[in-house]
Amino acid sequence: MKLDISLYIPVYNGESTIESVLKSALELDPGPNEIIVINDGSTDDTLKILNKYKNKIKIINNIQNKGLAHSRNIGIEKAVNENVASIDSDVEVSSTWLKELNDTKSKFNSAMSGSKLIEKLKDENIYNMWRHIYATQNSFGNIDIGNLGRPLSGSNTLLSKSVWREIGGYEIQYKTNGEDSNFCQKLLNLNYKTSYCSQAKCYHLRNDNLKSLLDASRRGYISGAGLKKPTVMRFMQRSIRHTKGYLKNAIKDVVKLRFAMMYVGFRICWNHINKEFIGLVKNKSNYV
User: Sheet harboring 156-160: ordered strands across?
Assistant: First the structure.
């Protein structure tokens, strides 16, 4: 059985995860009647892997890397259905994910519905564990929510194409992240509802090291904060904000004896402050 839903997957250099993600998408029961993969100028073996499934999926190749927001817009634009689901290239889905998500979206008549993302590799290292504790996407608990009133991560959602069109799509200035929160905020500003399905489960395959976590945290902060031109006063204000955030988490970590998490949090905090200072010196607001 197939649902009248399109599913798109944007991918850039995802050779380590894209095949298992595709297999999980193809095993959805019920599944979508269309799967689109946007290969965003990958330079690794991503395309070679995708071609193994070319009889079961539609492949769109960007000659150059255009960024995540651009790929999302292509996936939705090319979709033949009004309801368009998305997963990232490092997110596996459970077999009933799409049905659960579709039922929730229909039940609450929401413009966009998100699902529960579980960090599959959280026990691999302290960096994945830190992300599991403090940065898991769509972590809204074990109860369905009909009117969430908050932005959803684009990594595992179901969206009405007509609403995407009304909003004007994702802003292509967001190359790696931040496009989803920006889009959802516009959606909420137009009084559309976002909903959350706790039973639609998917699994994040991201496996961080210290550098990748620091880089991702910094990019996420820049995208979400909409940073203005750096000044000495703003540097001091942001440094205080980063330090307060670290201390708030550190207190929780001390209480629960999570000293490794304190270390990771400190490195993230220091990285932010250091990059803020370099940005001030270089007069660059979005210094990564």
Answer: 58-62, 31-40, 2-11, 83-87, 156-160, 112-119, 194-204, 91-93
3-state DSSP assignment of residue 102: helix
CA distance 201 to 124: 20
Residue labelled with tokens 């309801």 = 83
Angle 38-39-42 (CA atoms, 0-180°, nearest 5)? 160
Q: Which tens digits make up the pLDDT trace of 49-97?
A: 999 999 999 999 999 999 999 999 999 999 999 999 999 999 999 999 9
Residue in this structure with the two tokens 């330090």, named with its chain if needed: 243
> 183, 22, 157, 161: which is closest to 98 by C-alpha?
157
Residue 259 CB burial class (10 angstroms; 0-12, 13-18, ≥19): exposed
Interior angle at CA 132, CA 124 and CA 76, nearest 5: 110
Q: Tell me the mean pLDDT in the region 108-136.
A: 94
Strands (E), 27-155: 31-40, 58-62, 83-87, 91-93, 112-119
Q: Residue 21's Cα: distance from chain center in Å?
A: 15
Given a contact cutoff of 8 angstroms between Cβ atoms, the answer to whether 3 and 81 are in contact is no
- State yes or no: cis peptide before 30, omega within 30 of 0: yes
pLDDT 10s digits, 184-237: 999 999 999 999 999 999 999 999 999 999 998 988 887 655 567 888 998 999
Interval 231-271: pLDDT, tens = 899 899 989 999 999 999 999 999 999 999 999 999 999 99
Provide the 3-class DSSP secondary structure of residue 27. Answer: coil
User: How many other CB atoms are found less than 10 A from the CB of residue 23?
Assistant: 11
